[in-house]
Amino acid sequence: MTNAFHAITVEEAAETYVRSKGKARFLSIAQAIQAIRTLMPACKASDRELEEMLAAACVVHNVPVSFDVATAERAETRFYS
Q1: pTM, rounded to two decimals
Q2: pLDDT tens-place string over residues 9-55
């Protein structure tokens, strides 16, 4: 018996994370980014790129999303469903 591990892409990680939160009130982008960075410490995607991937997956899976990542341009939390 061999142990084979499938290499997961950052897109797959974002999709899987969103699908795992399907029954939640909303998905926190900040928490999702933190989870992906923990799972994939060598991830080269920027926070903005991850935010876009996660938001797109939320739209596809009809998961409400909170854009709660604080940046220099925007400091407020936004909720969308």
Answers
A1: 0.76
A2: 999 999 999 999 877 789 999 999 999 999 999 999 999 999 999 99
Helices and strands counted in the chain (H then E) = 3, 3
Contact 21, 57 (CB under 8 A): no
- Which residues is 79 bridged to in the sheet? 66
Phi, psi of 79 (to 5 degrees): -115, 135
CA–CA separation, 41 vs 34, rounded Å?
Answer: 10
- Contacts with 66 (C-beta within 8 Å, 6 or more apart), sequence order: 26, 27, 28, 29, 77, 78, 79, 80
Q: Write out the two tokens for 54.
A: 């996660």
Which residues, including other chains, have CB under 8 Å from residue 57's CB and lie 6 or more apart? 14, 15, 17, 18, 19, 63
| Triad 15, 11, 13: Cα angle to 5° | 55
